[in-house]
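Open question from group meeting: does this chain pack into something compact, or does most of it stay loose? Before anyone orders reagents, we agreed to write out a predicted structure and look at it together. Recording both the input and the output here so the notebook holds the full record.
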Amino acid sequence: MISTTDKAETLERAVQGRSLWMDAWRRLKRNRAAMAAIAILALMTLMAIFAPFLSAWRYDEINYDLVTCAPAWWPGPSLCTAPGHIFGTDAVGRDLFVRVLYGARMSLAVGLVATLVSLVIGVVYGATAGYLGGRTDALMMRGVDILYSLPFIFFVIILMVLFDRSLILLFVAVGAVEWLTMARIVRGQTLSIKQKEFVEAARAGGVSGFGIIRRHIIPNSIGPVVVYVTLTVPTVILTESFLSFLGLGVQEPLTSWGTLISEGAAQMETATWTLVFPALFMAVTLFCFNFIGDGLRDALDPRDR
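Structure tokens returned:
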């Protein structure tokens, strides 16, 4: 026999609503492409983290007896083969498999950290401009328009040339040029949200402007921001790869996918594997982030609820 307490708990669970994020997560789980992309990215991240345990060679271990040797299973022509080296070796005999995984560490780190930098700057700037409105908003957004007109890739290159090519500078320099679109997105959301009743109630209750931005504006504009973040990460990875391709990014003995692709492109006719594997890993990662972004956009779209 069911007690009154059990009936009340059952009724409460039956009528309990679902939050936007719970509903979005359920919709996202039905998107097979997005879930497959999440699984692939998780696997790639774990491989990058545990890279030292997945190979018998260090990423900077040089072996001049196995210079530019193909893996044993490679179907194309090669001057030599390197048994035990899954992806073969590079121009100085280093194991390409472990270097690709270490390259994943660097490229993913740059993508995530630089995106975080652009997220913080863009969200704060856009929310402030949209909430203050008026001349302040117009002045701040004209500044964004001016910055949009500048060739930012050259700005990053100048920073990397003038200052020490440290990883921190690379993170900050790339992140500092990717916040403009983020600011515009957050500003547009803020202009819409600040007219809502709960913001008016908070203002009438004496909540400060900073408190309204922190407690109400930013949390309620996080949906489009999350979608754009997933699309910013591959853009940042491509920017870092371009800089590394030019020799201005990650420096030896560290490596990234851009550095490996640059090295592979120099010998693609005689050692195709040195280009194929880092390019394949990078392409899969970029596709995964785009699939996740599309899945989040569909899951968070209120018109499809």
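Observations to bring back to the group:
The radius of gyration is 24 Å.
DSSP finds 14 helices and no strands in the chain.
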